[in-house]
Amino acid sequence: MLIENFYHITTSSQEGNLIRATVKLNPAHAIFEGHFPGNPVVPGVCQIQMVEEVLNELSPLKYELKRTGYIKFLHLVNPITDDTISMELKLEKLEDHLTQVTASYHWNHLIVFKFKGYFNER
Q1: Digit-coded pLDDT (tens) for 38-76
Q2: What's 110's domain CATH number?
């Protein structure tokens, strides 16, 4: 898990099926020593993992990623220049304990990440 070490949630809210969270990245995390030295960038796999972790942290149900619909990395996220990401996760219940999550991240006034995935309720 990345939460509380790679990042932590600073604010959150939920209105119906919309979860909003602000997370603060840890620019001193060891991941950035190799990704990339002197020019740290949040790895894409970490951005995907953050969707699941924030969803599970802020939702009363627990979810596990089953498959993705799309993943778009629109801009690089450098935790040195700005260590804060705003997240929006929209949940839509489907059939058979399946939930579609559409997520986007805003960083440094840019949309940097778009995601649609399908999660099983655990």
Answers
A1: 999 999 999 999 999 999 999 999 999 999 999 999 999
A2: 3.10.129.10
